[in-house]
Amino acid sequence: MVRTAGDRARDIGARVEAFVREEVIPYERDPRRDHHGAPSEELVAELRDLARAQGLMTPHILPDGQHLSQVDTAHVLIRSGLSPLGPIALNTMAPDEGNMYLLGHVAAPHLKERFLAPLLTGAARSAFFMTEPADWGGAGSDPMMMKTTCRKEGEDWIIEGRKAFITGAVGARVGIVMARSQDPQSAGGACMFLVDLPDPAIRILDVPNTIDTSMPGGHATVEIANLRVPADQMLGEAGEGFRYAQVRLAPARLSHCMRWLGSCIRAQELATDYACRREAFGKTLIDHEGVGFLLAQNRIELTQAQLMIEWCARVLDEGGQGTEESSMTKVAVSEALMRIADNCVQVMGGSGVAGTSVVEQIFREVRAFRIYDGPTEVHKWSLARRIKRAWREAQA
């Protein structure tokens, strides 16, 4: 049976869409940005106050702490993405959305009260410390290369290492730090720890300028030196960090697809409006096949992307781990959205590459999405391994 969004999700989604279109979009040209182009803390706080006033803060998580189903979440998060500022205002943006999901499923009650509660209200932002610098030989798409370590010392754990491309680290108040255990009982396994930020033991070395500018706090490189964390701030069990990462990663990949689908729906709207108004060579642009066919192809691929998101959401709702399905969805949707955004820029010509149009930003954000949460090539490599393994099992 095909599941569609329930009445509650449709109501929340309609309110979210109205809020983004009427209250958030006017802020897209707001100059309050940091030197990397990301929204300032002042702007984030103002947008979240607007969401609270509408009763829409963290709309995919209900007041009793229950998450909407993945199918229902898709209905809401797609609409939150109609502006790059929408997920920030509504508290559905990465990495917070994925971190809240992880804490909701793994954290002990005392950790939920201390670390999850301020995230749910939008009073705090978070960062997930997993990726490591390439020049250090650390973990990127292959988490088994992780070099950051943790060792037990009395009632504490000591963490040492480096992390890179840590989204939102600047200004975050909650950190989830992943490290490889040196403790004999869980040696080689990964552990996750919850930490209060900022912490003098976590030093920000660099915040590079990146092609995307929608996420507050940038994508920092950090050094972790003698970070002492009480044992009761471990997330889950020692040595189970890689398993917990999968709890987070499959839904987080899907949530990325939802938000950026919303942005590309908006880009399509703007490109369509431009093509239907602008005239050249005696007729409107959309009446020229070279332009109209681009928008027609976009319409097809937007529909395909939404169907694939809904398929993967149903798999997760039915209790599947969703690793393979989320990989396929992430590849298909990110590649399709790149073509859609590129077509929108092409249709709008000079207006499409100007910073005065949000289409230009959406193009940049989607280009980065093809890399974040696993590049296309890594997901295809993983899928190919599964195909080979299935073939071998069939031959046995």
TrEMBL record:
Domain Acyl-CoA dehydrogenase/oxidase C-terminal: 239-387
Keyword Flavoprotein tagged: yes
Segments crossing the lipid bilayer: none
Keywords: FAD, Flavoprotein, Oxidoreductase
InterPro entries: Acyl-CoA_dehydrogenase, Acyl-CoA_Oxase/DH_mid-dom, Acyl-CoA_Oxase/DH_mid-dom_sf, AcylCo_DH-like_C, AcylCo_DH/oxidase_C, AcylCoA_DH/ox_N_sf, AcylCoA_DH/oxidase_NM_dom_sf
Domain annotation Acyl-CoA oxidase/dehydrogenase middle: ranges: 127-208
Keyword Oxidoreductase: yes
Names of the cofactor(s): FAD
Source domain of life: Bacteria
Stated family: Belongs to the acyl-CoA dehydrogenase family.
Protein name as it appears in the record: Acyl-CoA dehydrogenase family protein
Organism expressing this protein natively: Novosphingobium mangrovi (ex Hu et al. 2023)
Lineage: Bacteria, Pseudomonadati, Pseudomonadota, Alphaproteobacteria, Sphingomonadales
